[in-house]
Amino acid sequence: MTVTGDSPTDGTFRRGRRLALDVGKARIGVATSDPDGILATPVETVRAGSGDIRRIIELVDEYEPVEIVIGLPRTLRGEQGASARMATGFGDRLRAALATSQRSDPPQVCFTDERFTTVTAQRALRDNGVRAKQQRSVIDQAAAVAILQGWLDEQRRPRPADPDAEPIGLGADFEEDE
User: Fold this and answer.
1) What is the pTM (predicted TM-score) of this model?
2) Which of 22, 138, 142, 145 has a CB 3.0–4.6 Å from the CB of 31, allowing a cystine?
């Protein structure tokens, strides 16, 4: 579910790569999609802190995404805690850096609910034989993949054009077979 940002909500899906970020205190997991927005794949883990925005900008230059999807870790009650505020702060800094760059069409930055993505990523890694100690180096990338794949799937889900419209084939002339 897209929570906030500039992503279209009218059912259109703009062709192009997406970059997803799982922002944490120590590391930022990065994933990307194919240009058709079907499959998310891991890219790398960026050390959070000095130089993290610069590295993400380098990845933007390399992958040329049309959108950047940042996971928003809400609480179980749907509220924004410290981690969500950290992610939105990072997103704001990234937007500002993109706005001051020389790009004619910078990627949009949006946020999506990412509850349980780290747990999902840990389970998937464990199910594939990756031990807990080995997971540390790739867990953030796997979480970014889960964030992006969930977002892509949500964007691709058909939405009704008009909830008040009559279903096709039903109307005044419709006769039900008995």
Assistant:
1) 0.76
2) 145
Q: Which residues pair with 20 in a beta bridge?
A: 31, 69
Mean pLDDT score, 136-159: 84
- Residue holding tokens 């890694």? 125
d(CA 33, CA 42): 9
Length of the chain: 178
Query: Would you state the pLDDT for residue 95?
Result: 95
* Residue where the block lists tokens 């259109």: 12
Output the 3-class SS for 74-111: ECCCCCECHHHHHHHHHHHHHHHHHHHCCCCCCCEEEE
